[in-house]
Write a structure and sequence with these properties.
This protein has 178 residues and is an alpha/beta fold. It has one domain: Rossmann fold (3-Layer(aba) Sandwich). Helices cover 33% and strands 29% of the residues. The chain has six helices and nine strands. The strands form two sheets. Strands 5-4-3-6-7-9-8 form a seven-stranded mixed β-sheet, sandwiched between helices. A two-stranded antiparallel ribbon has the order 1-2. Helix 4 packs parallel to helix 5. It is globular. The model has no long low-confidence stretch (mean pLDDT 92). One of its GO terms (molecular function) is rRNA (uridine-C5-)-methyltransferase activity. It is an enzyme of class 2 (transferase). It comes from bioreactor metagenome. It holds the Pfam family tRNA_U5-meth_tr. Its EC number is 2.1.1.189.
Length: 178
């Protein structure tokens, strides 16, 4: 296990879990997410070791973190202290099982993007804002089209060169209901 530092906050991580490796660009991505999260209740889908949840909790948000990887959640429990509810199940399974309301939903899915059932579930939570972090512009575009059909529109888009000198780019998008 190693400790990664982001904006003066420490995170326990290990080689078995995903964690953004570019420590120079990561703070800007965290600031994008935290500056666009509105309201008190935030859902963090594909939460990993709790990177976004940690900073959202520090702002006084009540966070629900959903991550299927038990090792990620074990580390997240070490990285987070209060105001976070942990759910160790797939995002798809959790999405089907809750009808709660969230003010903001943060989603940072794998390259395959969001399952259509997850898009439907997010829409059913009636969030004021959706913050979508993506490493695949093709699946991001596909999923934004799905959210658009439910009345959500892109408001802010920012790209992060997490992998310099490659064709890969990380994108964060804020969507709001019209």
């Amino acid at each position: 296990m190693v400790t990664a530092s982001v904006l003066n906050r420490s995170f326990s991580v290990d080689a078995q879990v995903f964690f953004q490796a570019n420590r120079h660009v990561l703070p800007a991505m965290v600031e994008f997410v935290t500056s666009h999260a509105v309201g008190e209740r935030v859902m963090d889908l594909y939460s990993g070791v709790g990177l976004f949840a940690s900073f959202l909790q520090a702002l006084g948000k009540s966070v629900v973190a959903v991550e299927r990887d038990p090792r990620c959640l074990e580390l997240a429990r070490m990285n987070l202290t209060e105001n976070v509810g942990f759910y160790s199940k797939s995002v798809e399974a959790y999405a089907r099982s809750t009808t709660e309301h969230f003010d903001t939903v943060v989603a940072d899915p794998p390259r395959g993007g969001l399952d259509p059932s997850v898009v439907d579930a997010i829409v059913s939570y009636k969030p004021q804002s959706i913050i979508y972090v993506s490493c695949n512009s093709v699946t991001l575009a596909r999923d934004v089209k799905r959210f658009s059909k439910a009345g959500y529109r892109p408001k802010v888009l920012q790209m992060f060169d997490m992998y310099p000198q490659t064709s890969h780019i990380e994108t964060a998008m804020l969507m709001s209901k019209l």
